[in-house]
Design brief:
This protein is an alpha/beta fold. It has 6 helices and 6 strands; from the N terminus they run E-E-H-E-H-E-H-E-E-H-H-H. Strand 3, helix 2 and strand 4 form a beta-alpha-beta unit. The relative contact order is 0.18.
Length: 159
C-alpha cells in the first residue's frame, strides 16, 4: 500500500471513504471524481474515516466541502475519528458548521476499493481551483487566505 491512500466502500445510500496518510491535491482529484459519480447515483451520506489520516491539505478539504455544500437534497459529510491536527485543519478553514464530527467510526472500517486514478495536470488544476473557490465561498476569511492561490490557479487553468 502506498504511503497515502484513499479507499472507498459504497453501501445503500452511503459511501465510506477511508483516508490513510497525508491527504493532498494528489488524492483530492480522484476523490472528487468518485464523489461526483456517487452524487449522480443518489448517495446522500459520505463518511470520512480519518482514523489513519495524518493531515489534509486545503484542496482535499475543499473537495469535501464541495460535496457538503453543492450536493443536492440533504447530502451530508461526516468526519469520524479525526485527530486534533486534522480537526484543526478543517476548523481553521471555518468549516465546522458544514460537517458532522464523530469521535469514533463505528461500522465504517470495511476494507474498500483504493482510488488510484492518474490525472492530467489540467484536470488536477481544475480540481484545485474548484476546491479553493468552494472554501472561499464557505467562509469569508478564506477569500483573503486563498486570494493568491486562486489568482495563480485561474491564471494557469488553461495551460
Amino acid at each position: 500500500m502506498a504511503e497515502s491512500s484513499v479507499q472507498v466502500c459504497v453501501g445503500d445510500q452511503e459511501a465510506v471513504i477511508k483516508a490513510c496518510g497525508r491527504m493532498t491535491f494528489v488524492e483530492a482529484h480522484p476523490l472528487r471524481k468518485f464523489c461526483v459519480r456517487m452524487m449522480k447515483q443518489g448517495v446522500k451520506r459520505y463518511i470520512i474515516n480519518a482514523q489513519k489520516c495524518r493531515s489534509m491539505d486545503s484542496t482535499f478539504i475543499g473537495v469535501l466541502a464541495m460535496v457538503s455544500l453543492k450536493g443536492k437534497g440533504g447530502v451530508r459529510v461526516e468526519i469520524c475519528a479525526a485527530d486534533d491536527q486534522v480537526k484543526g485543519q478543517i476548523m481553521g478553514l471555518g468549516l465546522k458548521r458544514i460537517f458532522l464530527f464523530h469521535d469514533r467510526c463505528e461500522g465504517a472500517d470495511d476494507p474498500g476499493e483504493e482510488l488510484d486514478e492518474r490525472a492530467e495536470r489540467a484536470e488536477v488544476r481544475t480540481t484545485m481551483l474548484e476546491a479553493h473557490e468552494t472554501l472561499s465561498e464557505a467562509d469569508a476569511e478564506n477569500k483573503t487566505r486563498f486570494k493568491d492561490v486562486l489568482a495563480y490557479l485561474r491564471e494557469n487553468a488553461s495551460s
